[in-house]
Design goal:
Elements (H helix, E strand, L loop, with lengths): L3 E2 H4 E2 L8 E4 L3 E2 L4 E4 L2 E4 L4 E2 L3 E3 L13
Length: 67
């Protein structure tokens, strides 16, 4: 079985502005691969429902954006 799409397990509230997604499934395990547009994201750790994870690079001096 191939990777799931990001929409299967999470949501992006404002796709044009946000740099994080919010988990909508019970959890996403570390190592899970998610297709997002033409990208393949790999979860670096386990995330529980309601937690956010980066979908784009976030510079050190910046902050996660989730509106």
């Amino acid at each position: 079985m191939g990777p799931k799409t990001l929409d299967d397990l999470a949501m992006i509230i404002k796709p044009k502005k946000d740099n994080v997604a919010v988990v909508t499934a019970d959890f996403i395990e570390q190592g899970t691969q998610l297709k997002y547009g033409n990208q393949l994201l790999t979860m670096s750790g386990r995330a529980l429902r309601g937690q956010s994870f980066a979908i784009k690079d976030i510079p050190v001096e910046s902050h996660p954006r989730n509106f």
